[in-house]
Structure formats: structure tokens, C-alpha cells
Specification:
About 50% of the residues lie in helices and about 10% in strands. It is of the alpha/beta class.
Amino acid sequence: MTVIGIDGDDTLWRNEEHFRAAEEHFVAIVGNYYDGDDIADQLLAIEMGHVEIYGFGVKGFTLSMIETANALSGGQVSAEDIGRILELGHDLLRVPIELLDGVGDALEDLASTHQLLLITKGDLQHQQRKVEASGLATHFDDVHVVAHKDPPTYKSVLDRHRLPPANFMMVGNSVNSDVLPVLELGGRAVHIPYHMTWAAEVADDDTHEAATGFTTVAHLRDVAGLLRPAGEQL
């Protein structure tokens, strides 16, 4: 194992709770026009229907909120409420970075023995700002902001570094994005569960149970212990 890829959102810094807070505000706004209890489900369906156009991230989320509000209100959503929805998106773009406990020390430990790649999915400019604001970029040999985390994308990253999959391990909070695609290529993966996960990133039970070749740990600092020879002291 020579190179470790590490996810950004909800692996190094908090992210999902900010989206869920925005979603709660959105549901309250649209609830003035629509009395169903599936507003969040409708939003998710529209988000996923436009991933190939909007991509992942705040901008796609905001456009999907506006489209959902228009659809569920029968075109009656007010300009004032559209403005409130836009402001939810603006607020997400302005959220300060909050690092998860111990990630700086954990990265320093890992970088002392392995090359590190930051591989994060989302809007290019927003993710680049997050990386810069995190103060963690110096721990990484390279940073990749990708539109998708699927086998072809990971293969492209590995090819760029002339890296065989067998020499690569990915670490992240999403089984769908950080584990399964890497296993499919023949690499290794470590799953670090976060206390909340976007519905589109949740692997179904059968898929999760069928996946082999990855380890689950509680914290990023636990990864270094997986890489040390048996019996070596921390």
C-alpha cells in the first residue's frame, strides 16, 4: 500500500448536517403550498434526476429546491419564497469549515508513511474553497475534485498517478462513493461511518453485506493502526 485517498465532506469536515438544516427550512417553506409529507422525498427525486446536468453540491441542490418548490406549488410559489430558497443556498456556500476531531493529527501521522490524495466530490469552486479554508492541503500530495465517484473516475485518478489499484486504499464515510467503486477496481477501502448520511449515498443492506475487502473504523486516527505491521506499537 503506497497511496491513500481520503474523502473530504463528513470525513475531514462537517457537511451533511448543514444540508439537512437547509432542507428542513425548505420543507417549511414549501409546506405553505403543499400539504403532503413527502416534500423531502420529492426534492431527492428531482436532485437525482438532474445529477448528470447539475452535478453534486450546493448549486445543484439549490436549483433542485427551486424546481421542487415550483412543481409542488403548482407554479404558485412566490418570488419572496424563491428568494428565501436562494438564500438557503447562499448560506450553505458561506458555512465555515468545521474540522472533525483529530483529523489534523491523523493526517500528519498518515502522511509520514504514505502519499495522500484528497479525493472529494462536488462543485469545483466550492470544494476548492473548502480545501483551502480547512488548512489541510499541505498534508496531501495532490487534490482531486471530481464530479462523480465511480470506477471510471477512480481509474482516471489512479492512471494520472501511474498507480495500480492494488497499491491504493480509499478512506471515506460513504460505502457507495468511497468503498464500492474502489473495491470494484481491485483496491482497498476503509469506511468511517458518519452519524448522518445523504439518502443517495446510503448503500442498501444487501449491497453492503455483499461487499468484501474493506474495513470499518470509528475515526480517521484509527487508519494508521491498520497499516502498521502486526505487533508494532502505536
